[in-house]
């Protein structure tokens, strides 16, 4: 598949804003720049502790995003009520621990299948496409296929944080196997977490992947090169990887 889509996660524009409680930089402005620069979608993670994206951002972005909103959220009643009201095009269900610095692993779908299936049903009833953020683990992939979600997002964090080349190659092999297995089960497959300008190409080259969600590296590069160039450069690398 030639096309690969880029979902730009703008969480950390909000991190910078919240660092001093100012109105700037505004994630709403960031989303517009990212879309003009080639983002195929905008991803935001409304965390329970609102450490970066806040409810105001979600409300306004739902009215201003021209591509599509991918709302990442924990599987809680609070978030399901918010998502049902906001009706983003996509919801990505992620695990959340208040004390974590960032997402540490994939959602345990297999261990809470009934809860996840109910959540998927509630979101689907609102016309929302559901993606489950999971590790490249066959048991989790099979559980996701049974959950009613149309998509999964393979967690690429261990690949991104590998300590050496052989570990990274092993993690990449695990991702490739998981993507192909999920695709074979009829799931649409995205991937993300920790992807950078230096490690994105081998993942983007996996033909069955529909979309990569990338944020921290893009916002980091934007500090030096500007957001538009940071987004365009990442998109170019992804398309180059597809050949
Ligand atoms: C689920 C995932 O991997 C990220 O999109 C998530 O947003 C990471 O959390 P922070 O953005 O809070 O680092
Ligand atoms: N789900 C992954 C995402 O949205 C962005 O993760 P990161 O690039 O900020 O690590």
TrEMBL record:
It is an enzyme of class 2 (transferase). It holds the Pfam family PdxJ. GO terms for molecular function: pyridoxine 5'-phosphate synthase activity. The keyword Transferase applies. Its EC number is 2.6.99.2. The record marks 153 as: Transition state stabilizer. GO terms for cellular component: cytosol. The active site is at 45 (proton acceptor), 72 (proton acceptor), 193 (proton donor). Keywords: Cytoplasm, Pyridoxine biosynthesis, Transferase. GO terms for biological process: pyridoxine biosynthetic process. 3-amino-2-oxopropyl phosphate binds at residues 9, 20, 194, 215-216. 1-deoxy-D-xylulose 5-phosphate binds at residues 11-12, 47, 52, 102. It catalyses: 3-amino-2-oxopropyl phosphate + 1-deoxy-D-xylulose 5-phosphate = pyridoxine 5'-phosphate + phosphate + 2 H2O + H(+). It is found in: Cytoplasm. Pathway: Cofactor biosynthesis; pyridoxine 5'-phosphate biosynthesis; pyridoxine 5'-phosphate from D-erythrose 4-phosphate: step 5/5. Its main location: cytoplasm. Belongs to the PNP synthase family. Homooctamer; tetramer of dimers. NCBIfam families: pdxJ, PRK05265.1-1, PRK05265.1-2, PRK05265.1-3, PRK05265.1-5. Catalyzes the complicated ring closure reaction between the two acyclic compounds 1-deoxy-D-xylulose-5-phosphate (DXP) and 3-amino-2-oxopropyl phosphate (1-amino-acetone-3-phosphate or AAP) to form pyridoxine 5'-phosphate (PNP) and inorganic phosphate. PANTHER family: PYRIDOXINE 5'-PHOSPHATE SYNTHASE (PTHR30456). This is Pyridoxine 5'-phosphate synthase. It comes from Bowmanella dokdonensis.
């Amino acid at each position: 598949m030639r096309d690969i889509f880029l979902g730009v996660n703008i969480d950390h524009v909000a991190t910078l804003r919240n660092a001093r409680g100012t109105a700037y930089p505004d994630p709403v402005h960031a989303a517009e720049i990212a879309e003009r620069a080639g983002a195929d979608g905008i991803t935001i993670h409304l965390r329970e502790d609102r450490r970066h994206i806040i409810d105001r951002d979600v409300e306004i972005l739902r009215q201003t995003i021209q591509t599509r909103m991918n709302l990442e959220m924990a599987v809680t009643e609070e978030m399901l009520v918010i998502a049902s009201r906001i009706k983003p095009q996509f919801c990505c269900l992620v695990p959340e621990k208040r004390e974590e610095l960032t997402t540490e692993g994939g959602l345990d779908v297999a261990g809470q299948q009934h809860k996840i299936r109910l959540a998927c049903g509630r979101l689907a009833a609102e016309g929302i496409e559901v993606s489950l953020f999971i590790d490249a683990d066959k048991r989790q992939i099979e559980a996701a296929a049974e959950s009613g979600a149309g998509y999964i997002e393979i967690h690429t964090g261990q690949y991104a944080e590998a300590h050496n080349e052989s570990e990274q190659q092993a993690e990449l092999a695990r991702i490739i196997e998981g993507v192909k297995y999920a695709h074979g089960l009829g799931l649409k497959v995205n991937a993300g977490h920790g992807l950078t300008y230096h490690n994105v190409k081998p993942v983007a080259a996996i033909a069955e992947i529909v979309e990569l969600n990338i944020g921290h590296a893009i916002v980091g590069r934007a500090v030096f090169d500007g957001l538009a160039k940071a987004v365009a450069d990442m998109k170019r690398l992804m398309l180059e990887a597809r050949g």
